[in-house]
Amino acid sequence: MYRVARDGAVWRVSRTPEGPGTLRVTEGGARAWGPGGEWMLRQLPVLLGESDEPEAFVAHHRVVAQARHRHPELRLCRTGLVLESLIPSVLEQKVTTTEAYRSWRHLVRKFGEAAPVPSEPDFEVPEGLYVMPDPRGWARIPSWEWHLANVDAKRADTVVRAARVAPRLEEAASMTYEQAKRRLEAVPGIGPWTSAETLQRSNGAPDALTVGDLHLPGIVGYALTGRRGATDADMLELLAPYAGQRHRAARYILLTGLTPPRHGPRRAPGRISHL
Q1: What is each CA distance from 102 to 108, 150, 151, 197, in whole angstroms?
Q2: What is the pTM assigned to this prediction?
Q3: How far apart are CA 214 and CA 235, in angstroms?
Q4: Which of the 8 DSSP states describes residue 272?
Q5: CB-based contacts of 56: which residues, under 8 Å, 6+ apart?
Q6: Chain-wide mean pLDDT for the chain?
Q7: Residue 120 neighbours by CB under 8 Å, 6+ apart
Q8: End-to-end alpha-carbon separation of the chain, Å?
Q9: What processes in GO biological process is this protein linked to (predicted)?
Q10: CA distance 20 to 18
Q11: Which domains does the chain have, with CATH numbers?
């Protein structure tokens, strides 16, 4: 969704309500191109965290207070776009981030479109900027293409179901967290993990704690207690004092870099497309 050019400029592409757009942001300002360019410029302040309220957060653990002190710049950003965060989250269900990214890249490059870019030679435009398909495009991807993208039928079916009700899901961007969560999870195949991962980005939801993650409970438990092996239930109990701000608390904890020691070899990503 975004690239950082060699000159430090951040390029972001999106399929907005007004069409595809490309945004370039630097310390000196921002410019945008394409039918969705003006929408992206209007959305830029909240994308950068203008609507976030970090002052509402109260630290209840020393390690969290220290992280907040070291990272006063942390803001929860809000894209205002649901599907562009939901589909990557569905693709990441039960697989590694690397596997999900490969699937996303394959599908977007094959079924999306080249992003609108400036024609002026003054800009160093990163290569490979593509806009994801529109909802109809996602719904029309053939079953064998999902297989070639290393996406199993369960995840593919979930993406297609979501694409078919995309207008209803996009409405969640302007809802409260609980309302948006219910709206997303009404789609079969979208559970608490996927809705949280989506609403953290689309809504900047400070309480959208990821439950069901392979690593997060262990990291939270180790950072706050020094003990390994924490479960989702343990994490929820430890973060109960942060009700309404649990995602923000988890972000601060991740910024500490405290992680439990790892044991055993890592699993190599599989390729169902080879079957």
Answers
A1: 10, 8, 10, 18
A2: 0.93
A3: 12
A4: G
A5: 206, 244, 245
A6: 95
A7: none
A8: 30
A9: base-excision repair, AP site formation; DNA alkylation repair
A10: 7
A11: 2-47+79-202 (1.10.340.30), 54-76+210-255 (no CATH)
267 pLDDT exceeds 80?
no
d(CA 29, CA 226): 44
> Residue 269 pLDDT more than 70?
no
> What residues contact 227, with CB distance under 8 A and at least 6 apart?
221
Structure tokens at 124: 């160093």
pLDDT, position 25 = 98
For the chain, what is the largest distance between any 2 Cα atoms, rounded to a whole number of angstroms?
56
Tokens 């950072």 belong to residue: 223
Query: What is the DSSP secondary-structure string of 231-256?
Result: -HHHHHHHTGGGTT-HHHHHHHHHHT
pLDDT in tens, 215-254: 999 999 999 999 999 999 999 999 999 999 999 999 999 9
pLDDT per position as a tens digit, 106-151: 999 999 999 999 998 889 999 999 999 999 999 999 999 999 999 9
